[in-house]
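User:
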Amino acid sequence: MRIVSGIQPTGNLHLGNYLGAIRNWVAMQDEWTAKGATCLYFLADLHAISMPHVPADLAANTREMVAALVACGIDPDRSVLFNQAQVPAHVELQWLLNGTARMGWLNRMTQWKDKAGKNREGASVALFTYPVLQAADVLLYQATHVPVGEDQKQHLELARDVAQKFNNDFASEAAPVFTLPDPIIPPQAARIMSLRDGNAKMSKSDPSDQSRINLTDDADTIMQKVKKARTDPEPLPSEAAGLEGRAEARNLVGIYAVMSGRDVDSILAEFGGQGFGAFKPALGELLVERLAPIAARYRDLREDHTTLDAILATGAQKARTLAQPTLDAAYAALGLVR
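Assistant: Predicted structure:
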């Protein structure tokens, strides 16, 4: 069994990034490696150049993301952690698969339509062929399982279509070149909202730093941000239905639930009838307790470029070794002499 998943490198990581994605990767590592599976996690830096970007920021964000993943619990000794750019087989296989993928398939991709908008003529070719690189990302390692959220289901279906057509056109049924990966539906990702607006997602692009809990925040900063978080004047209800229409209250209680591993009803049974003056300090203490070790490790790692580069180099070497047999088989199937 092989599990493959990628994430675009972004900077200024916050609580929403941790609870929305990174925590699920750690849980998958712990669950699947215990079953004897290989987990490959990559930083999708090649995907990042499909949109306008600042090169220095991309390099810095790649290292920051590695630091965050390791600080949050990804173990480079148990999982293969690398960035795409150090494994040229990703782009080699993408080109080989471009002969199998069809324009009509790519035109139907909803993310292409959303990101290109009305100016499709001005969008990059990389943005259009993005799903073919995604297919290469997973097919290259004979992935048996790929975690997908709702927005990525269509891309995994395309990867399966490309693999099936390639196998049908260039391989025998007894010896297919590619494994068709199955989806893993991860647990519902926590949707963490802004501390200043319960109807907006927590985001690094928000101009107010008070809107988010950064992974670099120290204990005093976390407590201060939670205490200043926007709320309403009403006390907390005693059951979940009472949070309807109270976006900020629902967000803070939801954060408490995710961080504590408790359900919302049990939290409201404890704090129902009390004001936020009692609830916010409890939430702040919980966040400090759970995030302090991660934040300390993250702050140390993000400045240690030598260690981060070594982690990526080691992971890339492992990935190249795993990828080579599939790449060789694809070249041979196409009749390309090397």
